[in-house]
Structures are given as structure tokens and as C-alpha cells.
Amino acid sequence: MSTHCQQANALPCQPGQVKTAHLHGHDHSHATSSRKRLIGALAVTALVFVGELIAAYISGSLSLAADAGHMAVDSSGLVIALLAAHLSLRPRDNAYTWGWARSEVIAAALQAGMLLAICLIVAYEAVERLWENQSLQPLPMLVMGVVGLLANLISLAILAGGRGANLNMRAAFLEVANDALGSVAVIVAALVALATGWGRADAVASLLIAALMAPRALHLLQRSTAILMEATPSELNLDELRQHMCCLPGVVNVHDLHVSSVSSGLVVLTAHVQVDGQVTAAERDLIVHDLSECAAHHFPVEIDHATFQLETARHAGHEHLEH
């Protein structure tokens, strides 16, 4: 059973003094721009992956192989991200009423899973190598580490302008940024091996690369899982939103309130709103308008699409009896 609304502690929304309702269309130019950036980053990353793989084989470096593995995940992740950016441009239809917007979230979850798998493999191999001082050829390892770092910086420059567009682009940017740190670890390990002959520096660098990847992969997995599970956005306090809505004239109670994300850039809301039985049709229209504006502009999360079912106490009571 839902309870009646309590007065909000925060400043209530003012009816009739709100911005004009915003349109719910979504500009595809962001997806097109994201796709171009992803293609550029993919070309650079794929070339460096091949080079690092060859250099890892020649030098016997695990850290370089780990960085190549990270590059492989970057490349496959960028392919997934590119596919997701392409799918997000597909129009909505009766079968997919939100279009393919959620494909970028699924892509981010897949990237996180691949990163975690690479972390476990590299960490296991690095621990084994710590027990024995491996012979290395640090010079090709150093050269390829520098090349990898430069390539990562180029990819970061390509992706930087679009990293705030959606979760998919943010994931791609963070993957390359972390890989740049991995390249730094390879360079340091190569320099240590050149200066001292201590081959275990390579295993230490490998563990560092795995440690850099794991927290980011877990965070990305948590973010994407929350969207797929239709969790309320973490920035939004649902009780506060309900209280604000209840402060509007004519609103008696709000129940079955749900706020979730279709994708990282598309937040939707549904709610059953109990109104005073004496409100007129015109007043009901005003209530819907004010509820929409309250949800869209009064909170840190912009709610792009809101659907309200207005009902009287009699209908609300009937619903509770059914449930």
C-alpha cells in the first residue's frame, strides 16, 4: 500500500512557472561523430596491436604481451563500440520502440567482461614469472613501448572530444587512457631491465597493468549492469522526486514511480499520480505539464521521456486490491 505524499524538504516545483516542455527527439549527429572518432582510434590501435605482438614474441616480454592483449581488447572493444554507434542510428519501429539505443550499454558490458578476463590471465602468468628471473631483450620492448604510448596519445586525442557523449564513448576513451598507462609500465620495465638486467621488472609491470585494468573494468561492468537492470540513476533521489511531485496543486499521491535508463543518454520515467477528484480536464492537463517539467528540470538527471497515469482515489484503491 502506498502512503500519502509527505511535504518535501527541498524547494517545491512552482506550477505554471516552468520552462517550456522540451522535445523528445534525439540528435543523431552525436552518433555519427562518435562513429568517425571510433574508426580513427580503431585504425591506430589495430596497427599498434600487431606491432606489440611481434615485439613481445621477439623480446619475450610478458608486460608487452599483456599490453598487446590490452590493445586486442581495445581493438575488439572499439569494433563493438563502432557497431553499437552504427546500430544506435537505426530508426525506431514497432518491434524496437526505443530503437537500438541500448546496444551501446551491451557493448560496454562486453568490453568490461573482456578486460576482466585479460586481467586474470596476465596476473596469473605474472605471478608465475616472479619465481624465476626471465631472460629478456629489453631494447625491442622499449621501442615498442614508446610506439605504443605515442599511438595511445593519438587515439586519446581522437576520442577526447566525444568521451562525454555516452557510456560507449566513455568506455572507449577510458580503455585507451588505461592502455597508455600500460605502455608507460612497459617502458619503465624495459629501462630497468636494460640498466640492471633484472628480468622480474617485466612481471612487476605486468601485474601493474592488470591492476590498472581491473578497477576500471569492474566500474564499467557495474554501470552497464545497472542500466540493463533498469536501476534508478544513482544521481537521482526517488523519494525527493516523489515529494516534489506531491507538492503540485491537485496531486494527492504518487505511486508506482519508476525512473530508469534506456541508455546512458536516455532516462525515462513512469508513474501513477492520484489527483483530487474535483479537478477539471483543463486542470489535469496542467498537472501533467507541471509534473513533466518538474521531472525534467528540477533534478540533476534530465529525464527525457515521462509518462504519467492520472487516477482518482477510487481507481487507485481498485489497483491496490488487485495487487
UniProtKB/TrEMBL annotation:
Query: Keywords of this protein's UniProt record, alphabetized?
Result: Ion transport, Membrane, Transmembrane, Transmembrane helix, Transport
Query: Where is it found, in Gene Ontology cellular component terms?
Result: plasma membrane
Q: Which residues form the Cation efflux protein cytoplasmic domain?
A: 233-311
Xref: Gene3D superfamilies: Cation efflux protein transmembrane domain
What range(s) does the Cation efflux protein transmembrane domain occupy?
A: 40-229
Among InterPro entries, the record links this protein to: Cation_efflux, Cation_efflux_CTD, Cation_efflux_CTD_sf, Cation_efflux_TM, Cation_efflux_TMD_sf, CDF/SLC30A
Matching entries from Pfam families are given as:
Cation_efflux, ZT_dimer
Transport as UniProt keyword: yes
Q: Where in the cell is it found?
A: Membrane
Molecular function terms from GO = zinc ion transmembrane transporter activity
TM spans, by residue? Answer: 38-58, 64-85, 105-127, 139-159, 180-198
The record's comment on protein family reads:
Belongs to the cation diffusion facilitator (CDF) transporter (TC 2.A.4) family. SLC30A subfamily.
Name the PANTHER family for this protein: CATION EFFLUX PROTEIN/ ZINC TRANSPORTER (PTHR11562), RE54080P-RELATED (PTHR11562:SF17)
What is the protein name for this chain? Cation diffusion facilitator family transporter
